[in-house]
Amino acid sequence: MKWLGRRQSDNVEDRRGLSGGKVAVGGGVIGIIILLLNVFGGETGQTIGNVLEQVQGGQQQTEAAAPLSKEDEEMGDFVRVILADNEDIWSKIFEENGMTYKNPKLVLFRGSVQTACGGASSASGPFYCPGDQKVYMDLGFFEELKTKFGAKGGDFAIAYVIAHEIGHHVQTLLGTSAKMHHEQEGKSEAEANKLSVALELQADFYAGVWTHYNQKNLDTDDIDEALSAANAVGDDAIQSKMSGQVVPDSFTHGTSEQRMYWFKKGFKTGDIKQGNTFEEIR
């Protein structure tokens, strides 16, 4: 992606050089369990830290503060540019539709983090917390996305994930998230999961819409990188890789095919009115 020398957002909180506090020891199976619970964290992440502590008991350690390398600094600059792009594009889209966009914050961390939605480990993957309207990311996630789940990698895979999480912020501002949670009340687990899938697919659609309006800054392989990431984090792809079984009723984020489809639809149309994923899944 063409990003060097461009505007950087002031709404990034870089906590990577700070002590991470309590961090789960061992990773491995535990990390996979948490990842399966919340790949791309969705829009809450509020139970991640609690689950992690229950599974591991008291096996924790304190992460020491570590200085940022030159590569770390460069990645931070890249994230600031991507967030600035989201700010500019979504502000314009909201204004065109008679609304006002409120910029979220994006927090970079290592190991673990405390949020208005509770504590979370880096094993949870990136997530959005509506309680404080912040996106949380440990950039180490993207190496695992490539090595464990077969994603192509590349800088636009990171841009796609950021745009997906900003999509959850858009849903919060539009009231979509609150409406979805209300509709989940009294539903069976399978029916509630369908609504969760629709929310996640709409966030993928919004990521595609953002990409549509950012085409002047794309490199040749960027769309392939985004689609590769979307494919890698489909519920069916993860379940098949981790357990060899696929259980559709347990899906919470959508299949690889669905995630790629909705990203591509957003990218092709650039029209937020065409992202009614809730109607599509009924």
UniProtKB/TrEMBL annotation:
Keywords: Hydrolase, Membrane, Metalloprotease, Protease, Transmembrane, Transmembrane helix
Main location, first listed in the record: membrane
One Pfam family named in its UniProt record: Zn_peptidase
Membrane spanning stretches: 21-40
GO cellular component: membrane
Record carries keyword Membrane: yes
Single Gene Ontology MF annotation: metallopeptidase activity
InterPro entries in the cross-refs: Uncharacterised_pept_Zn_put (IPR007343)
Membrane topology: Single-pass membrane protein
Cleaved signal peptide residues: none
Localization per record: Membrane
Keyword Membrane in annotation: yes
Annotated coiled-coil segments of the chain: none
Protein name: Metalloprotease
